[in-house]
Amino acid sequence: MADEDLYQDQGVEDAVDSDEISAEEAGFMEGYNSDEGESKCEECGEVIVDRENCYEIDVEGEKHVFDSIECRDKWLKKHGYDVEDFI
What we know:
Distance between the termini: 34 Å
Radius of gyration: 15 Å
Strand order of the largest sheet: 1-2
Low-confidence stretches: none
Largest sheet: 2 strands, antiparallel
């Protein structure tokens, strides 16, 4: 499969079907491709410039993005989650 095909919805589906990528990778691609504009840390509100060095977690089916581990952990504790469950 050509690399440029992978960035289309059908390309991602085909790659999963042929075991070229995992379902988790497909989910990441879907989220990455659907992100528009800038992302902000959900704890401190700072704009996340480098998406490759941020911290994303899935909590009850919703994606949450943080600019640091400290912000991630603070947010989890504030919302009553056990940090160890997300390491």
